[in-house]
Amino acid sequence: MKKQPFVTLEQVKEIVKEYPTPFYLYDEKGIRANVQALNDAFSWNKGYKEYFAVKATPNPFLIQILREYGCGCDCSSMTELMMSDAVGSTGDDIMFSSNDTPVEEFQKAADLNAIINLDDITHIEIVEETLGKLPKKMSCRYNPGGTFKITNDIMDNPGDSKYGMTREQIFEAFRVMKEKGVEEFGIHAFLASNTVTNEYYPMLAKILFETAVELKKETGADIKFINLSGGIGIPYLPDQEPNDIMKIGEGVRKVYEEVLVPAGMGDVAIYTELGRFMMGPYGCLVTKAINEKHTHKEYIGVDACAVNLMRPAMYGAYHHITVLGKENAVCDHLYDVTGSLCENNDKFAIDRMLPEIEKGDYLVIHDTGAHGFAMGYNYNGKLKSAELLLKEDGSIQMIRRAETAKDYFATFDCFPIYEKMIQE
Ligand SMILES: *Cc1c(COP(=O)(O)O)cnc(C)c1O
User: What pTM value is reported for the model?
Assistant: First the structure.
């Protein structure tokens, strides 16, 4: 399948009159259609709710769009909780799925009446000590260990993952929590990341549903929800078949009817905490070719760098690139597309066949809407870009301004000549 950008060269030429490259651009129309499709896919479940994984794209404007569709926020840090609060998402609209949690964050989550999803059995005591008593409604994160397989393919390695409680621990946790007055329970697991298969959620659901039935039988816990968490992936590669969310929803429904309904648990709500699936394809990084270099290889230098998008440098992740205005040109040039960091892994593409690129060409780096801007850092003193929203009516809204040198130096206000640093 050919990957098409959601923005044209003509549009970008207009945008750069006001906002210089590099910038992140998000597609409001795509975001809305996708969240609607997700809700439709799970409409068979009365209590269904998506808690958007804020860490994927922590932008209040985008979260507000999702809020219109009933989404809550999945948070795991103090500032994520603060952002969630700021967009009016509190109480049962926050799932606090943290790990290695500082007590201040448990306190903040409790102040906002968030649902606390415990990563570890030792946190029962910590939460009890911090809050005086356990909240009425709580959840536990489960990690069955071993490998997670779909037919014969290993999808991921829960046994190597730091998250969640063992089977023994979650049974013990439910017993203890019930004794300590918890009345409503949830279970959560996140066993594989960026899965591009319609089988992941149904298989995870089977594990969690069967565990829920046993937990209820053995501990008498009143299980109100089962949280399938994140992990539904997106096709970063042009030849990958995208997930079909309707099939995924139906797959989960089938398991629900096979396992939960006969156990008298047909009123359990299904929750999800998707991040990548909600935003990934609906964001791109737009950057300009500013240098070309011909040495042992052919290099195109762009004005974005790994500070703006870390996934290629960090994971060797593939992000498709379109040269705007050359969408249909033949890809007959072999390039490394690089940023300007003093780090040889600062490359958006290595040995990529692309149309001939000239200085001044605009490149769209696809599928950066999740875990893109959010992972940004400031190495080499590089500054983070603006985030822009391409609205449904075709207009552009700035949803985060670009960082300035003043922002970068702001934490040096303890330095004697700070004033000189921030002069612009
Ligand atoms: C990262 C994360 C998610 C979202 O994961 P995606 O792969 O973006 O869907 C959901 N829940 C928790 C607890 C996470 O850490």
Answer: 0.97
